[in-house]
Design goal:
- It is a single chain.
- The protein is of the alpha/beta class.
- Helix content is 56%, strand content 15%.
- It contains twelve helices and eight strands.
- The protein has an eight-stranded mixed β-sheet, sandwiched between helices.
- Strand 3 and strand 4 form a beta hairpin.
- The longest helix is centred in the last third of the chain and has 31 residues.
- The chain is elongated.
- Bound molecules: adenosine-5'-diphosphate (ADP) and magnesium ion (MG).
- Adenosine-5'-diphosphate (ADP) binds next to helix 1, strand 7 and helix 12.
Amino acid sequence: MPELLAYQLLFVTGKGGVGKTTVAAAIALLASEQGRRTLVCEAEPKGDLARAYECGPTPFSGRRISDDLVAMSMDTEASLREYLRVVAKVPKMGHIGPVARAFDFVATAAPGIREILTVGKLCFEIRAGRYDLVVVDASSTGNVVGQLAAPSGINELIRVGVVRSQTDWILEILGDPARTGAVLVTTPEEMPVTEAVDLAARLAAETPVHLACVVANRVLPELFGRSEELVFNELTRAATLDFVARNLQTSRELVEDVLAAARLAVTVRRDGVAHLERLRAGIASDVPLLYLPYLFARAHGLRAIRQVAHALSEELVT
Ligand SMILES: Nc1ncnc2c1ncn2[C@@H]1O[C@H](COP(=O)(O)OP(=O)(O)O)[C@@H](O)[C@H]1O
Ligand SMILES: [Mg+2]
């Protein structure tokens, strides 16, 4: 199993809101800083990558973020146009209108066409050798399996001809564990962990893509060691509460509220630890589990991406 940044194609997936875009943007940033020519692509063009890098729009044709980093958003229609022009060598068309309509018709009739135009474009970039690494901010749990399973589905559907010759090399890239991997992002909570364990099983059963690693994002640090615990217990004694309230000229209830918040943070972390244990037990033992800390600073955009990239680089060293 290669080291994370040595892959050629990484699909970052997981339940909505767990940090897929953040992790994909951070992996791409880290790889590019190590001199790997990196393309990062959002599979669902919502502008989330542009927000993460605090840059302008990231079109299908790509936006250069730095010397070794380009960001793009998927557009299946543009992908079809590129496919017709570059691979099928169909001469440039003046109007895409009729093709787009025909495409919509075909894509609706044959499930998997849209997906293969997404995955195919990315595999094409690998094959063309323009990039050392392509990172995909992939669809969330529900859709990613269909996306990654599409080429084999089509391959089984059409066993001969031009489509077969196209899907064969795509499958070869997707199914090569030395080149392609899935990065499954989750958080130390009930539902995200349950979904991550399910998704790991579905990826293995239904797609050719192997699991490169699982990322546990927003992990709370150990807040209370033994000495903090002693101080905390001391603070919660009635006499201490009264003393603090009197000195601050505030109510005892307010002081108790502050302590309750601290207690909540500790409880959340302890629950998180239990979920992380469930996660570790639910995925194959040879799949690395990486931890990324909860960022408390109200960082977003590029600053948050840099912080996550830094934390990730430390995980990759150990
Ligand atoms: N380690 C972290 N600590 C704190 N906030 C985080 C962390 N990772 C992501 N976030 C925040 O969580 C939210 C969801 O992250 P995002 O990457 O957009 O998730 P997804 O792409 O899976 O929907 C964002 O507001 C992001 O800034
Ligand atoms: Mg996202």
